[in-house]
Amino acid sequence: MRIITGIAKGIKLKVPRGLDVRPTADRVKESIFNILANLELPNGRNALAEATVLDLFAGTGNLGLESLSRGAAHTLFVDHSLASLAAVKENINHANFCKMAEVRRGDSLKVLDALNKSGRLFTLVFVDPPYNRGLVNTALQKLDMSDVVEHGGVIVVEHSKHEQINTDWHYLKLVRSERYGETLVAFLIQDEKTTLGGS
Hints:
By secondary structure, the chain is an alpha/beta fold. The protein has a single domain, classed as Rossmann fold. 29% of the residues lie in helices and 26% in strands. It has a 7-stranded mixed β-sheet with strand order 3-2-1-4-5-7-6, sandwiched between helices. Helix 4 (108-118) packs parallel to helix 5 (135-145). It is globular. The model is unreliable at 194-199 (pLDDT under 50).
């Protein structure tokens, strides 16, 4: 597993033995970031340029680190596992992103509540929870009803093909979904004009 492109291109990321995570495969990650680079967003904004990124269920920090390499300004990595966060910190140091990264330990869903209360805003959010545990739609519901994602912000959700995500939200609009074997990746945009059943 490595950083594919950008200022930290080629940096290998560590996944400690016994760590119960499922890092995004390089081919899937490359596709995700190619799609992000070409998404049509409000005001012609680029999803990665100077982005403030929230990497939930961060694991090794694979997606958040790739974002920093490709032009994001800051990433907050969230995970409940000490082993995961130790790997994230090691990978942050190895990629020399210490000044652009923040690590927080906690349940990702509870951290979302805390971030909402604090007024923190993000332009890009990665949601990659353990598969088939019912966490995907719960996380999306919290993001839909909170003020954590700014208008026009993007949410990227990685989930199992056996877990169907809801598409009817108050403020989130599903704009694209791709399948890679057992994995599905959904792209949603926070759209204030979207209401249940359409705009």
